[in-house]
Amino acid sequence: MENTDFQAKMQMYTDSKQRKLKPVIFVGHSLGGAVATLATLWVLEKRLRQSSPFCITFGCPFVGDVRLHEAVARENWSGNFCHVVSQHDVVPRMLLAPVEKIVTPLIAILPYWESIMANDSKHAPDSSIQDACRTLLHNVLKYTNTVANYGPDSVRGLDGVDGVIKRSPYRPFGTYMFCSSEGAACIGNSETVLKMLHFTMPSHENPYDTIVQDSFSEHIGYGSVLERVIEKSTSRRRSAKPASESSYKMGISLQLESIGVGIQNEHAQIALQIARSVENKHNTNVAKLAIELSREQSSMAELEWYKENCEKDDGIGYYDTFKDQGKEDIHADGNRIKLAGFWDDITEKWEGHELPSDFQSQNKWINAGTAYRRLVEPLDIAHYYRMSKGKGNYILDGRPKRHKVLQKWMEDKEKTRSSRDKKPRTRLASLTQDSCFWAHLEEALKDLETLKQQHHHQKAESLEEFEGYATKIVNDRNISLDVFLEGSSFMEWWKEWKEYKQNQFPGWTSPLNDIMENESWKR
Question: In whole angstroms, what is the distance from residue 455 CA to residue 22 CA?
Answer without folding.
Answer: 67
